[in-house]
Amino acid sequence: MTVLVLGGAGYIGSHGVDQLIEKGFDVAVVDNLQTGHKEAVAKKARFYEGDIRDKAFMASVFEKEAVEGVIHFAANSLVGESMENPLMYFNNNVYGTQVVLEMMGKYGVKLIVFSSSAATYGEPKEVPILETAETHPENPYGESKLMMESMLKWCDQAYDMKFVALRYFNVAGAKADGSIGEDHDPETHLVPIILQTALGQREKLKIFGDDYHTPDGTCIRDYVQVTDLINAHILALQYLKDGHESNIFNLGSNEGFSVKEMLEAAREVTGKEIPAEVVERRAGDPSTLVASSDKAKAILGWQPAYTSIKDIIASAWNWHESHPQGYGTPASEKE
Ligand code: UDP
């Protein structure tokens, strides 16, 4: 089966490409390299550099490739950035998805697995969060993901395009062998920032607020290991191929950890002190996001291999220690 992976050079997408190839899929990748790294794309994939909003470029890819399914990771994904620049999010994420769906329609592609987000829920009324919970996004990023989900829903109704939207909670870690991992510039995510501090690349971790309604006052998030997350995409693709109806699944661990708990776990994993200080809240952050992933387990048969937060952090640490400059590490130092 030929799968077109959009955003396949990014952190999550590159783990997707890697696992698809390991599982015997034929893979084509589109990425504009705005945040992705070409070095992260598995060599057996065919790589097309370009933007999903560029219709002529996208048409040329669909002309060349006999695409049977799309996995769509290509989006901007930072809450803080989206608060400052909402139109960037509506343009790249929402309009980008419109072009993708137009192309799928034009070239008769009926299956899409879509990276959605827990940010679609906003501050939840109950945790763990079920897929049936109300959606009230608190930032333009979450709003854009909800709009993208709506587009998929109406395209299913009108054109019989089948989708699975996977609402990610917090994704962390790296491939177990440390060959690919997380490398953002600038980095804003908690786990890599903690580990860069452990490496001495940052002076201290800034904890964004300790006056939330949580036991230790810091935000609680649900962390899922990136290779487990990807495994759910492949199950979702198979689910669609088997002719099932469109569906939405949470991907998390059913367990929440506060920022302070993550810091403590990372201190244990790395054996480093990791200095930290509490600063102002970051705009747009809900206090607690914890998934119920029971639906993905029951319907997709998803079974995450990583069940301990320390193992998730250790997989990320393995990557950061071996690639202290991310993909910028000179080849001679990569082995
Ligand atoms: N966070 C923090 N300091 C940082 C980065 C993140 O305290 O330098 C907090 C952030 O406020 C949130 C949690 O860590 O409560 C996870 O943030 P991240 O950006 O990793 O993911 P998000 O939840 O925004 O998707």
TrEMBL record:
Question: What are the NAD-dependent epimerase/dehydratase domain coordinates in residue numbering?
Answer: 3-252
Q: Tell me the domain of life.
A: Bacteria
Q: Which reaction does it catalyse?
A: UDP-alpha-D-glucose = UDP-alpha-D-galactose
Q: Which PANTHER family does the UniProt entry name for this protein?
A: UDP-ARABINOSE 4-EPIMERASE 1, UDP-GLUCOSE 4-EPIMERASE
Q: Which GO biological-process labels does this protein carry?
A: galactose catabolic process via UDP-galactose, Leloir pathway
Which pathway features in its UniProt record?
Carbohydrate metabolism; galactose metabolism
* E.C. code: 5.1.3.2
Q: Which InterPro entries match?
A: Epimerase_deHydtase (IPR001509), NAD(P)-bd_dom_sf (IPR036291), UDP_G4E (IPR005886)
Keywords noted in UniProt? Carbohydrate metabolism, Galactose metabolism, Isomerase, NAD
Q: What is this protein called?
A: UDP-glucose 4-epimerase
Q: Which cofactor does it need?
A: NAD(+)
Oligomer status and interactors: Homodimer.
**SUPFAM superfamilies from the entry?**
NAD(P)-binding Rossmann-fold domains
A Pfam family that the UniProt record links to this protein: Epimerase
What protein family does this chain belong to? Belongs to the NAD(P)-dependent epimerase/dehydratase family.
Q: Which GO terms describe its molecular function?
A: UDP-glucose 4-epimerase activity
